[in-house]
Amino acid sequence: MSDLRELAMTSKAWPFEEARKLAKRFSKKPPEKGYVLFETGYGPSGLPHIGTFGEVARTTMIRRAFEAISDIPTKLICFSDDLDGMRKVPGNVPNPAALEEHLQRPLSDVPDPFGEYDSFAGHNNAMLRRFLDTFGFQYDFISSAEFYRSGQFDEILLRCVEKYDEIMAVMLASLREERQGTYSIFLPISAKTGRVLYVPMKSVNATEGTITFDDEDGEEVTMSVTGGQVKLQWKPDFGARWAALDVDFEMYGKDHSTNTHIYDKICRILGAPAPAHFVYEMFLDGEGQKISKSSGNGISIDDWLKYASAESLSYFMYQKPKTAKRLFFDVIPKAVDEYHQQLRAFDGQDLKARLNNPVWHIHRGQPPASDMVVPFSMLLNLASASSAENKAQMWGFINKYAPDATPETHPGMDAAAGQAVHYFHDFVKPEKIYRAATDQERSALVELANKLREWSEPIDADALQSLVFSVGKAHGFDPLRDWFKAIYEVLLGASQGPRFGGFIALYGVPETVSLIEKALAGDLLTT
Questions:
Q1: Which listed residue, of 31, 176, 257, 263, carries a Cα 20 to 30 Å from 277's Cα?
Q2: How many whole angstroms separate alpha carbon 196 and alpha carbon 211?
Q3: What is the helix (H) or strand (E) element at residue 128, kind and residue range?
Q4: Taking 70 as the threshold, does the pLDDT of residue 291 lie above it?
C-alpha cells in the first residue's frame, strides 16, 4: 500500500471519511457494472445557483478521495430533472408574464424566455454545463426528458407498474389523509394540453404496462407508461432513478433528509441496493433565508466569478459541509485570502498534513503555487484609498511592494486586482462612511503623518507597523485597537481594515501622508 493510500485511510478530512464509508460497500467485490457511480441531481426550474455548484464540487471531492483509496474506476453523472412541470414562474427571467400560459408543462417544453435555446430547461441546462466545464469537472450529463422519452427509463417504469401497490404503500404512509385519496406515483403528461397532470389513477394494468385516468377535460384516457408519456412523482423518481442507473453515491441537502428512507425503500422495491448518502446543510442568503433558483436570492456563480477566483469558491464549498452557511457577498474576501493561505502552507507540509489541506481536495493533490503577493483584503483597501477604476491603477501600488511582479508572471494576482476593483465599486464604496477625527485622534494622526514624512528607513511593513503602534501608545489609546479603529474609520471609511503597516508599505509612504492630510482637512467627509 502506498504512503498516500495508507495515510488517506486514516485522514480526518471529511471527503476521505465519506470515501472510506463508500469503499466498505465494495470490500468483498467491486460493482458488477465495473465502476462506482456518483450522481448529482439538478432541478432546472431556474437559473443554476451556487448551491448546485457546491453539490457537484463536494461530490467531486469525495470521488477524488475515493480514487485515492481504491482502484475501482469511477463515474459522475449530473442528472437534470427537466421533465418536471413548471410549478411557478421564476422571478428572475425576462418577461415572466409570457411564461404563465406554460405552467405545469415540462420544463423541457417551456419556451426559453432568453430566446437562446429550444426550451427554458435547455437554457438552464446549458448554463449549468458551462459552469461545470469552467471548473473542470469530469461528468456525464443526463437530461430527464431525454432519459424518459428515449426509452432508457422504460424498464424501470414497467417495473413500477408491477410494483405499484408496494410503492404506493410506501408513499401513502408518508402522506396526510386528504392527500392519500388523490395521490399516484405516476404523473401522465396530457396529450391534449402538454401539461403534467396530478391526477389519481383509475386503474394500473401491470400486464399491459398502462395506466388509466381522467384527463383535464374529464375524458378517460388509457396510456402506456413508457416513451416519456408518463413521469414519476419526484420522491418515487429519486429511488427509481437510483435503481435505473445503479447509483452508488448521491449527496443532497438537509431538506431531503426526511425522505431518505422513502427513496431507499423504493430503490430496493425496484430491485437495486440503495446508494450511500451524504446530507449537507443548506445554503442561506444574507438574511438567513434558504437560497432558491426560482427566487434568485443569494449569489449566482457568475456573481462570484466577477469578484473572485473559481478556486476560492471551491474552497468555500469545502468548509464544514454539515454546517449551514450564509452565502452572500461578504464571505468572498475571506474565502480568497484563506484559500491562498492554504496554498502557501501546502509546500511546507508533510503528506499527512497535505491530505487534510483543502487545496489537496480542490486540485486533486496537485495545487498550484500562490502568486498573490498582496492579500485580497489589502487590495480592497488599496482600491478604497485610491478610488481605483481599473487594475492598471492597482498594479502601480502592487509594484511598490513587489517590483518584480507583472500581470504576465502573476496572472492570479492580475485577475484578483481587477476583481478587487469590481468588488470595491459594487460593495465597499456604497457602504463607506467617513467620520471626523476626535481631538485625540487628530493629534495622533498629525504625529503619524510627521513621522512618515521623516521616514528614511527601508519600506518595511513590520517596521511601519511598529511606528503606528508607538504613535498610538504615545497618545494614550487604551486599548490600542481603538487607535486602529480610528484609523480605519477616519482614513478608509470602514470600521475595520488591514494591518496598517502593510497598507502603508503597499500604498506608499507619501500617499499615506496625503491621505491623512485629506482626512484631517475634511476632504474625505464630502467624498
A1: 176
A2: 15
A3: helix 120-134
A4: no
Long-range contacts of 128-135 (CB under 8 A, 24+ apart): 128/42, 128/44, 128/48, 128/52, 128/78, 128/80, 129/78, 131/48, 131/53, 131/301, 132/53, 132/56, 132/78, 134/305, 134/310, 135/53, 135/57, 135/310, 135/314
In terms of C-beta distances under 8 Å and separation of at least 24 residues, what long-range contacts does 90-94 make, across chains too? 90/45, 90/46, 90/47, 90/293, 90/294, 90/295, 90/296, 91/294, 91/295, 91/296, 92/46, 92/47, 92/295, 92/296, 93/46, 93/47, 93/120
Q: Which fold, 1-143+281-366?
A: Rossmann fold (3.40.50)
pTM for the whole structure: 0.88
**Residue 59 reports pLDDT greater than 90:** yes
CA separation for the pair 4, 106 (Å, rounded): 47
Cis peptide bond upstream of 479, omega within 30:
yes
CA-closest candidate to residue 75, choices 325, 249, 304, 333: 249
Going from N- to C-terminal start, the domains of the chain cover 1-143+281-366, 376-431, 439-526
- pLDDT tens digits for 155-168? 999 999 999 999 99
Instruction: Spell out the CATH class of 439-526.
Output: mainly alpha
E strands, 181-286, in order:
186-188, 203-205, 210-214, 220-224, 230-232, 249-253, 276-280, 283-284
Q: Which of 136-150, 319-333, 359-373 has the lowest mean pLDDT?
A: 319-333
